[in-house]
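During the no-cost extension, the postdoctoral fellow (Dr. R.K.) reprocessed legacy sequence entries with the updated structure-token encoder. One reprocessed record is reproduced below for audit purposes.
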Amino acid sequence: MSDTLFPDLDGDPGERPRARAVRRGFVIRTDGAARGNPGPASLGAALYDLARPDARDDRAAPDASISDYLGVQTNNVAEYTGVVRALELAADLGAREVHLLLDSKLIVEQLAGRWRVKDAKLIPLWTAARKTLVGFDRWSAAHVPRAQNSVADALANEAIDRVASGGPASVVRRPGG
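Re-encoded structure tokens follow.
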């Protein structure tokens, strides 16, 4: 057991201390899909490491992704659930900073505090998103056109199609996996 304040620095003085693997952050694109409103619903999330020069390129392959089937839900519940799950994954991966690029103006404005959350079904999801966001050193949320959200949209639609053909409800891909 170390008797110093800096146990990671104990050992051979010529040996460099090992840094913990902490990701600086992610650009996150999410989308929700509902075939009918409410109807069979899903979410898609694409996470891009901020260290990549193409992290904001809407055509780039993501470093991590989520494609989840949610059962029968509204589109807004699917959209919000996508944001919450993506933020949780980013936090789990050690991100200190996140930048949300969403095609849901409703969510962007509500997260920023400019619009009230009126739908009772969205309040717990908004609360979960806000609680997760305060754990990051820095965050932002911006609205993007639907055409710039095609990767997350495809992940959401894949989940509905995958479940309809007997596949798994959830597919999460982490960096390096």
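The radius of gyration is 18 Å. The chain has four helices and six strands. The remaining legacy entries will be reprocessed before the final report is submitted.
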